[in-house]
């Protein structure tokens, strides 16, 4: 079993209104030191061991998890810790 | 200037319908090896150097970035790379 974490961010240059709203709100709360905020998401997957893991994760991202037009993704694979 | 990345996840035990939907969709695309999917978000902040950085980031999370009732957060601080 592997634990895969996929990080999805907006591509450089794509406007991030949610991040802009966070920055504005932080300023109005008194955190003037915040110069920029950008929001991304991550997805933690528990995946059974299988061949071609990296290729399959790339395919999952292209088909479903990320929008390749406006988003970039990267992922880490580690051994899952059984709890 | 520091680059701070805040990772926000649902607390253990809180239902994650978005993650469940992702898992179901991945199954129907043929990725039967995915046993669990959970979704979180991360926020990248560019912050001017200031005293008590960690305490101020904790306060930002409690006041705005995370919902402490259902979400956990953690953050990393690194030196910002000027581009």
TrEMBL record, chains A, B:
<comment type="similarity">
    <text>Belongs to the PurS family.</text>
</comment>
<dbReference type="GO" id="GO:0004642">
    <property type="term" value="F:phosphoribosylformylglycinamidine synthase activity"/>
</dbReference>
<comment type="subunit">
    <text>Part of the FGAM synthase complex composed of 1 PurL, 1 PurQ and 2 PurS subunits.</text>
</comment>
<dbReference type="InterPro" id="IPR003850">
    <property type="entry name" value="PurS"/>
</dbReference>
<dbReference type="GO" id="GO:0005737">
    <property type="term" value="C:cytoplasm"/>
</dbReference>
<protein>
    <recommendedName>
        <fullName>Phosphoribosylformylglycinamidine synthase subunit PurS</fullName>
        <ecNumber>6.3.5.3</ecNumber>
    </recommendedName>
</protein>
<keyword id="KW-0067">ATP-binding</keyword>
<keyword id="KW-0658">Purine biosynthesis</keyword>
<comment type="pathway">
    <text>Purine metabolism; IMP biosynthesis via de novo pathway; 5-amino-1-(5-phospho-D-ribosyl)imidazole from N(2)-formyl-N(1)-(5-phospho-D-ribosyl)glycinamide: step 1/2.</text>
</comment>
<keyword id="KW-0547">Nucleotide-binding</keyword>
<keyword id="KW-0963">Cytoplasm</keyword>
<comment type="function">
    <text>Part of the phosphoribosylformylglycinamidine synthase complex involved in the purines biosynthetic pathway. Catalyzes the ATP-dependent conversion of formylglycinamide ribonucleotide (FGAR) and glutamine to yield formylglycinamidine ribonucleotide (FGAM) and glutamate. The FGAM synthase complex is composed of three subunits. PurQ produces an ammonia molecule by converting glutamine to glutamate. PurL transfers the ammonia molecule to FGAR to form FGAM in an ATP-dependent manner.</text>
</comment>
<dbReference type="GO" id="GO:0006189">
    <property type="term" value="P:'de novo' IMP biosynthetic process"/>
</dbReference>
<dbReference type="Pfam" id="PF02700">
    <property type="entry name" value="PurS"/>
</dbReference>
<dbReference type="GO" id="GO:0005524">
    <property type="term" value="F:ATP binding"/>
</dbReference>
<keyword id="KW-0436">Ligase</keyword>
<dbReference type="InterPro" id="IPR036604">
    <property type="entry name" value="PurS-like_sf"/>
</dbReference>
